[in-house]
């Protein structure tokens, strides 16, 4: 099953002790919608199914509409044990699109983020939009593409070839510790 594959991928890189199976789940018919956070009153989008695409890939880079579109048909959440995670009004859910093809590279840092070069300098780049994180997980944006090829696929396939999958990391972050910027690697890098 896709759920078991998702858990196996995480366990292969970070070990079986990090996965909290009791809180892992699959989201079914949740539609894409903006939600206002109760504590910060900022908007975010929850994990959801639907289509993602960008004129960045079609108009700017000349990729066909078919290859520039991902249809998110299933969303599997693999929960991780984290004693310091807080789920209160001072924390906001944020997402980071991971390259499933090179996820094994995260074995060095484990589930902890390490700052990396990005559009606004070294940092840890997160977004309140699940769909935007999916776009980063789907194809290589400009700021990351200089050394590896613009719009190169970042998704991977299951061993049986039945599914292509993306990986997005969701974190709960202290709202007052977030530095906000305008623009994305897709619009104006």
Question: Which band does the percent of strand residues land in?
Answer: 15-25%
The separation of the N and C termini measures: 38 Å
Strands of the widest sheet, in order across it, are: 1-6
Number of strands: 10
Q: Assign a percent range to the helix content.
A: 10-25%
Radius of gyration: 16 Å
Secondary-structure class: alpha+beta
Order of helices and strands: HEEEEHEEEHHEEE
Number of helices: 4
Query: How would you sum up the major sheet?
Result: 2 strands, antiparallel
Averaged pLDDT, please? 81
Q: Based on Cα principal axes, name the global outline.
A: globular
Runs with pLDDT <50, length 5+?
A: none
Please provide a written account of the structure.
With 189 residues, the chain is of the alpha+beta class. A two-stranded antiparallel ribbon has the order 1-6. 17% of the residues lie in helices and 20% in strands. The chain is built from four helices and ten strands; from the N terminus they run αββββαβββααβββ. The mean pLDDT is 81.
